User: What shape does this take?
Amino acid sequence: MLKMTALHWATEHHHRDVVELLIKYGADVHAFSKSDKSAFDIALEKNNAEILVILQEAMQNQVNANPERASSVTNPVTVAAPFIFTSGEVVNLASLVSSTSTKTTSSTNIVLKLRMSLTRKL
Assistant: This one.
């Protein structure tokens, strides 16, 4: 058994309308088959430019098209740890910008503070 989704199968057999319908109703365009191929990979192998474009757009819009599949985190930047790893140490980026000066501090000043902090730690 190949463990292919309906989207994989429709892509492999050049069924553009079926691909569009599956995507419209929430098919996971990021799913991989047993042989580690996405529908996009299959369309690429089959030289199907039309389906490639459809899949590419769907991949870019998957979160917007399927909000029920989206994680509760809407902005990965808000979750990412604000740290930089240097030689043997971790620099907390939040400590470089005080909460009182955040609104007035330019990005250039933040970069300068970061460079000074890294230089002191090295």
